[in-house]
Specification:
single chain, mainly beta, SH3 type barrels, 5-stranded antiparallel β-sheet, 2 helices
């Protein structure tokens, strides 16, 4: 049985993944330039999914990547 609260989880919380709405400005072989209020380059290796939802691009990344 797994405990929902543990010392390990308090000291090392899991990284959360989120769908972030972005505007794709430029793409290279290794990275994508996005705009979500600020323009940043994200390596393709850190993007775990891309979807089009209601005519908006969303990328699936770690929360700390775009936040």
């Amino acid at each position: 049985m797994s405990w929902p609260f543990s010392i390990y989880r308090l000291l090392r919380p899991e990284e959360r993944y989120i769908w972030a709405q972005v505007r794709i400005l430029h793409e290279t072989n290794k990275a994508i330039l996005i705009d979500n209020g600020m323009k940043i380059w994200i390596p393709k290796s850190r993007i775990y999914g891309v979807r089009l939802r209601n005519n908006n691009f969303e990328i699936y990344v770690k929360e700390s990547t775009v936040g």
